[in-house]
Each structure stands twice: as C-alpha cells, then as structure tokens.
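Our example pasted here:


***
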Amino acid sequence: MARIQAEWARERPDVDVSPQAVIGRLHRLGHLLTARLDVVYRTHGLSEGEFDVLAALRRAGEPFERAPGELAAHTMVTTGAMTKRIDRLQRAGLVTRRRSAADGRGRVVALSPAGRSLIDRAFTEHMRNERNLLDALDPREAEELERLLTGWLARVEPVESVEPVGGPATAPRTPGAPAPRGGG
C-alpha cells in the first residue's frame, strides 16, 4: 500500500492520496479476512450467502423460521438473490418452505433438522476462526478497533449513494433495504 501511495504521490502530486493509507488497507484486509472465513464455509459445503441464511434462521430461535423478505433484510441481499439461496438450501435438505399460517399467500422458510445441525457445527467453527483472526491484536487494540469501526460505520452506513461520498447524488438508505456489500 505504501508503494502504491508513493507512486500516486509522484505521478499526481496535486491529489491528496492520504486516504489510501486507511481505505486501501481496509480493503486489502477485507479480502484477506473473507478468504479465511470462506475456508470454514467451504469446509461445511456452504457459500458465504448460504451460511448467512442458515445463521439468520438459527438466530430467529424456535421454530427457526422467517419469511423470505425478512431473511433478505437480515442478510442484506435482494429478494431475488435470496430466492436462489433458499432454492439451493432446500435442494440440499437444509431448509423447508411452507405457506404462512398468518397469510396464505406468504411463505415461511425454516431450518430442517439437518440444517440446524450443520449451522450449529459451522457457526462454532466460524467463531473459533474469527477468534483466531482477532487474536493477532491484543485485547486493547481489538477493543479500540471495534470502537473506531463502530463509529465510522454509523456515519457512513445510513447514506447509500451511486456517486462517491460527497458526489452529487446521495440519498438516505431506506430502512430495511439491503446495505451495500463489498468494496470497489
């Protein structure tokens, strides 16, 4: 990252490249962390998105079910993407779908016994993996990083924009709408 900044500073001394010191490193760290987290998902035969769906159902508590739209909101994806994930999980026997008792037109997705068993194993390993990754920091560093990221996220997340921050088009994010994922 320092080399990239130095090259840009040499080539474009008229542009402040100091934000790259933070943003570039966060972006790189995000890719490295995702790669290490994906190992656990793959070990259990899941994609990150499938893990997210099973985890959202498990967190719901007994009877471990949610409406597809609620799952989409909890996992920050579109309803179309959610349908594809649910279809794959249903084919694998990890979730079931049924009509909603409250609204005959609506659907409910529930963990199957196999899905609950899988997510319980996968989640335990996932937390162990996250602990190992975080242990690269001492407890005070981890606590400070959490504080800083929480504050920064609270300032950035409520605004969703097609334009870069500070550009002409910024609009408040609709509550419950999917938040942007990844980074560009």
